[in-house]
């Protein structure tokens, strides 16, 4: 899979802010920051201590009684296999903040307005919330995610998805590429791969019968099939806007290929309702200016239009990669406009990268010096992605808004319809947009395994359980109550 000889961990680690030399700018004041010299940048003590105390100690009432167990404690329960304890603790989060935005929960927790003890013992001011939104605890701002559900963000914290990140040297696409190679080798007569083949229509082979007749897949390049079962693995926005699987006939009793329900009404509604974020990423191959200078600035964080810059090391001796931006929602829309020169025009990646470099250099002498290190190596070395405008994506990944967890529950467990023949449509879903950990490969892999398990049972097969006798179909879909009274 293109992994370095010593494994993933043998590649240089992700340049986390503060772990490497980091340039921090807030309201025009700049500081160099290394966490080995100072735990947080100047001025960020209140949010650093408060957020750290909440994650480590949880939330307590005015008498010191625990209201919410800490994120650290729940993580430890998961690592120790205490699923029951972790489940009970997480239900407390859902009960208290399951219908609340990230900002709303932070306001309750860190202002003391709910009468509880404030983690870190210092109430946050408006300025503190602004700092946390702009730069977090000095490691990247949460502002674009303030409207997202609080529980959505806390899942990422508890599952430690931003902890100890490492690289695949040739990129994450090596994972599906290797799966394709293995399938073509092991199943040469039952495996076919068709690339650059958009599919817009999933239709039953015989509309008068059940799914046993199979499905045809149709797109601009033709029709393919029949296939016994279908797994649709794309973003939920693409499922809704680019395929027919969430559509229903407008005339009762009619059934046509264009409007054949391929999902239950509840699942189709969940696909259409759940929030998907906008996001852009701009990267370039640059000279590895830090190769002989371990004290060189590697990361920049600011409250300007350029939110964050990272320089990544993929183990090449002379070159690295600069992510001059990877941002979401309003910030993504703001930056995207910088690369459009005419109304209705497409984004020019070169113009966008150069425009961001100019903004960086204008922030001051230290920033101009940093910007001079980030120039791309020759033409054709800039990579640009904006998922909301990309064909067959229509958005980056799912981040649930307050109250949307029941939708995710419906999508995530849709594969278990294989256990109920009269609910089994034969069309299954996969992708990180359905997952509780959207935006990460873990969520995509988990939903893929679940979908495959559903297909195997639906087609009359059996599953091999793990050492504890469990399969994906052993997961309890009602382990949590995501809305009062359910």
UniProtKB/TrEMBL annotation:
<protein>
    <recommendedName>
        <fullName>Amine oxidase domain-containing protein</fullName>
    </recommendedName>
</protein>
<dbReference type="InterPro" id="IPR036188">
    <property type="entry name" value="FAD/NAD-bd_sf"/>
</dbReference>
<feature type="domain" description="Amine oxidase">
    <location>
        <begin position="7"/>
        <end position="456"/>
    </location>
</feature>
<dbReference type="Pfam" id="PF01593">
    <property type="entry name" value="Amino_oxidase"/>
</dbReference>
<dbReference type="GO" id="GO:0016491">
    <property type="term" value="F:oxidoreductase activity"/>
</dbReference>
<dbReference type="InterPro" id="IPR002937">
    <property type="entry name" value="Amino_oxidase"/>
</dbReference>
